[in-house]
Amino acid sequence: MRIRCPHCGERDNGEFSYLGDATVVRPDGMSASSEAMHDYVYLRDNPAGLHRELWYHGAGCRSWLVVTRDTRTHEIRDVSSARDVALARHTGDAA
Amino acid sequence: MTTMTLKRSDADVAAEIPDRSQAYRVVKGGLVDRRKLLDFSFDGTSYKGFQGDTLASALLANGVHLVGRSFKYHRPRGILSAGSEEPNAIVELRSGARREPNTRATVAELYAGLEANSQNRWPSLAFDALGINALAAPIFAAGFYYKTFMWPASFWEKLYEPMIRRAAGLGHAANAPDPDTYDRMHAHCDVLVIGGGPAGLSAALTAGRAGARVILVDEDFKLGGRLLSENQWIGSQAGVEWAAAALDELISLPEVRILTRTTLFGVYDHGSYGAVERVSDHLAVPGVHAPRQRLWRITAKRAVLAAGAIERPHVFGGNDRPGVMLAGAVRAYVNRYGVLPGRRIAVVTSSDDGWRTVTDVLAAGGQIAAVIDTRRSVPQELRRAAESAGATIITDGYVAGTRGHLRLKAIEVVDSYGGAQSIACDCLAMANGWNPIVHLDSHLSRKPVWNEHIHAFVPAAMPLGMVAAGAATGHFTLADCLATGADVAADAAKECGFERKLYPVPSTEPESAAHTPLWRSPRIKGKAFVDFQNDVAATDVELAHREGFRAVEHLKRYTTLGMATDQGKTSNLAGLSIMAELTGQAIPSVGTTVFRPPFTPVAMGALAGHHRGKEFRATRHVPSHAWCEENGAVFVETGLWLRPAYFPRAGEKDWLESVNREVNTVRSRVGICDVTTLGKIDIQGRDALAYLEKFTANPFGSLPVGKARYAILLREDGIILDDGTIARMGENHYVMTASTANAAKVMQHMEFCRQWLWPEFDVQIASISEQWAQYAVAGPKARDTLRGVVDPEFDISNEAFPFLASANITVGGGIPARLFRISFSGELAYEIAVPVAYGDALWRAIMQSGTPHGITPYGSEALSVMRIEKGHAAGAEINGMTTAADIGLGGMLAKKKDYIGRLMKDRPGLTEPDRPTLVGVRPVDTSKRLRAGTHIITLDATPSLEADQGFLSSVAYSPSNGHWIGIGFISRGPQRIGERVRAYDPVRNEDFEVEICSAVFVDPEGSRMHV
Amino acid sequence: MSEATANVWAPRSAWAGYAKPGRHGRTQGDAGVRLTLRDGIALATVIAADGQTDALRALVSERYGWTLPEPGKSQVSRERGLVWSAPGQWLAVAETRDALRELPDVFRGIAAVTDQSDGRAVVRVSGPNARTLLEKGVAVDLHPRSFQAGRTAVTSISHIGAQLWQLDDAPTYDLAVARSFTGSFWSWLTEAAAEFGYEVEQGSAH
């Protein structure tokens, strides 16, 4: 399996480690209910098809990445910098 | 060769005694180098062959057909094929440390001195005592493992398994370390061409001429594929000449890499491929510094699969008799190797190309006994050569059985009227059509589909970037191979950004690939094999059908069809077709199993490469490593690190005595310990503090510059991730340590927080683990010792540099250093860090400076004893299941900030009052030794899961207390100080009284750290 | 401080105890690979503060005449310059330790600087088989169509984290691995280089 790191280019999957769902958003720990935090920590969809997921390029530039992967074929549709995705989301929250 | 005492005529014996003068070698022709005569041996008998032979062709040249015994029934087996699909001719090559079992004689290149032995026979190949298994065939039928060895269960390990292992044909691995090295190479290309036959050569030429980076891989030692084995013309050149010219042109193209003797064994996602190159397998011993094999990891934008096809055997009685071969293999031995596999050769064919065998054998001076075509009508022009040679020709007939013992003597033929006759022959060539090699394109779970036109499975949806050509797609004629190879390669090159350019395809002779396969002879005399290597007979498929194992996946597992090392290359379809017939379905309805890597067996050595023995994984050395080695340290592996465990001195009788001495010295004088293995992380930026507050569970807002503090990190689920210290080195500058085991995990977590959770923070994180050597200097004389190395302008007195102080200093006359007053041992202690290049120097300087104070180096053992004496949690306590409250640190957690794990640490399960909590334990009888993992139960309890009240996580002999001590998790532990309970260890059969006590066994007030 | 203790304070090479200068491996013909141990090299991680990348770019250009390399690129001339190593992060490289000593002060407020000079073992790999040698361990495509002088890759070699940057078209590479791994890395490198014959030489010292 190969992942095109937006910073380093295409690399072998041995350079990356997998975390999981990139669609869940951490609620603020001071204001969230424990139920909301529970859902964030434990509840995951398991789609057959496109899945946005977090990968870490640990043996490369140490960037966290949001990889859009088809769980049925392993086809990778998109790889983005997780920081850029998070910043855009935060900007979106503010707007 | 010894013969056995079976009753046979002298003539029989003579026919079976191998002729050692290459009597079956054709006078001229073939691609072997007749000037290079090679000596080799098989089962201790010497033979001769030529350079360019395989072991199989050389054996056949000497009239040797019997090369092995079969897996279950120990039936005599010969050479079926001339390629990597070989199921029968599996031998042990070489001897001693290089002995290599399960090698296919059909692909083993002959070299001078080659030594081969048959497998799976005892006492000899000709007389195999276990041949009696054949008589017991009914118990070895499909599913025999499940039925025969069910009970009693205790018999399995003691009797059944050893018996099966001895009887089964697995060969013998070398029992000495492999003396050879195995290399690895990464390669990248635009177009990978798999297979160097006509389609592959045509593809490589097309892509190479376009300027693409091309890698051409072929498992053979000579390029050309079937061109080497058939008498075919391309334009005005013989096929072999055309292949040689193609090779010359490919070599001239700078961006084309040709890998022969290289098997592409696996297809992986996104254009990744695995291949193994047999660099030195054709030599007795690899050259100096040359590897035995090389593993290639190939990344290709496009791949052209031109792997060709495998011919199908017929299923009839005794189709496994030595001398029964695939027709294409017979032509390979005749045309490529100049060997006639028999004196009188019969051909059974269901395809037009089977008839080529007749022409080629006759041209080589061989005799054709008969041709049996299973089809009703056969074009007149095919029959002509056989007719003029006077061969018996039978159409609409079939072979029902064979005769002979160790070698084929005759075939039992049934003609279209049902009349049976026996035809004498010593070799039978089977042509039942070809199966495209769909293994590689199904490695990513893509099922091949049935092509009615060619009666075979062909690739369906190919993996992304992969396309097939030639016989691998069912295009069997030479013209089609050349054309499709060029066509798909032109597309592939274009997709890689090169011009799509097609060159005229050279002309070829008219050719027919017409065939109508006969899946199973209507009448069968004797055992008819479907899978030769796993001894699966047609009757086993019938049995599976009767017993309900009809689905293709069940059929495979119940009969082991297709599960041998050859993955059923010659057998799968035969099995499926019989099941289709029995269930009254079409073959595509039965379906097919898919294949997985590797295509052919790959040596573990090739996969491991450099990484074996002590190089199995990388080893990290601490900065004091050289000194520790010089001074006789005993090392221990902790993760990748090699750490000094203890430093034995002359006269110490065991490790415990050394460790006790180290602990006592630290507690009474001073010691030094290399703690460089801790993770060290530099944190800077305007928002460094805000960021730290988010991922640490205890508060840091009040930490002033020049101070350090213990830090607890939680996971989001409330469990402790790790602990360490954080020192504030400047206004916006912190240095943090993480535990040795969790260093990488903590760094990853910090990047996750910085990049994903809180990207708006201005914070810069850098690992400085490798930059700084860090040593703990501990004991009452620690300060006095450090005064000898710290430059005099820095005041390290207790007043100027109290407990938990931190500072940038210099040592040794201006070398930058960092000093932290932190203590793991509970003594007056420091951790001092210098750039690693000075790590060795600092260690030696501290040893020198500490000598008047009685300094000792101490290792990870004494470190561990002292932290247990102080009740500090480490890896055994921070074990991925415990909370801060569990280790007694719940009170430290921040109340007024959000941090990772804040909410989830209060989940009901984690806060219930009975939860086991960290306390100490000491034996009532102080002579008793405590054991980690021991369970705690009450004095009157009957041991049971319900009675379990906790366990000991860490134990040590405490020289400070003079007896064993332990810390562990006991239900409501802190409220039960002084209570007596039982330490119950069913593993070691121990059960004695202990007392629950404080986890701090030394200096409970903590005053020593502050002096 | 006495003469005797002063002698204790000598730096130790990352390669000490592992690498031996001289010709090794295949003995016939010229060495296919030259391995130059770069002990004196200075390295520092430079991480731009949030929103300060442009300021950093201007500063390095004005003060040192360097350009801030784009991802995957390096700008090293006369043994000094910057090598990209992560988003917003570069490795400053110089031939001597002194050359980078001022960086933390110069970049204050614009970038965080951490000294890594001792944290990496650096070897220069050159010679006719240099690329083939590295291809044994590097999964990144080093073919001149994909990777040229001025390119860098942060990757792993033989399961050991490594960064390499190509210096010229010969090609010559500088290769840095974490210092605690030097022994294991050297073991791999020399086994891989043995078939070409290799020459080990000491580069500039401290």
UniProtKB/TrEMBL annotation, chain A:
BP term (GO), one: tetrahydrofolate metabolic process
GO molecular function, one term: sarcosine oxidase activity
InterPro entries reported in the protein's UniProt record: SoxD, SoxD_sf
TM segment ranges: none
Keywords for the protein's UniProt record, in alphabetical order: Oxidoreductase
Highest rank taxon of the organism: Bacteria
Coiled coil location: none
E.C. number(s) listed in UniProt: 1.5.3.1
Full protein name: Sarcosine oxidase subunit delta
UniProtKB/TrEMBL annotation, chain B:
Single annotated GO MF: sarcosine oxidase activity
Membership in a protein family: Belongs to the GcvT family.
Domain Aminomethyltransferase C-terminal span(s) in chain numbering: 918-1003
InterPro entries in the cross-refs: 2Fe-2S-bd_N, FAD/NAD-bd_sf, GcvT/YgfZ/DmdA, GcvT/YgfZ_C, GcvT_C, GCVT_N, Sarcosine_oxidase_asu, SoxA_A3
Residues of the SoxA A3 domain: 525-609
Keyword Oxidoreductase included in the entry's annotation: yes
UniProt keyword Oxidoreductase present: yes
Domain of life of the organism encoding this protein: Bacteria
Domain GCVT N-terminal residues, every copy: 625-897
Protein name as catalogued: Sarcosine oxidase subunit alpha
GO biological process terms on file: tetrahydrofolate metabolic process
SUPFAM superfamilies: Aminomethyltransferase beta-barrel domain (SSF101790), FAD/NAD(P)-binding domain (SSF51905), Folate-binding domain (SSF103025)
Organism taxonomic ancestry: Bacteria, Pseudomonadati, Pseudomonadota, Alphaproteobacteria, Hyphomicrobiales
Signal peptide: none
UniProtKB/TrEMBL annotation, chain C:
An example Gene Ontology molecular-function term: sarcosine oxidase activity
EC category: oxidoreductase
Gene3D superfamilies named among the record's database cross-references: Heterotetrameric sarcosine oxidase (3.30.70.1520), Probable tRNA modification gtpase trme, domain 1 (3.30.1360.120)
SUPFAM superfamilies assigned: Folate-binding domain
Entry EC number(s): 1.5.3.1
InterPro entries with a match to the protein in the record: SoxG, TrmE/GcvT-like
Entries under Pfam families matching the protein: SoxG
UniProt keyword Isomerase, yes or no: no
Keywords: Oxidoreductase
Keyword Oxidoreductase found: yes
Domain of life: Bacteria
The protein's name in its UniProt record: Sarcosine oxidase subunit gamma
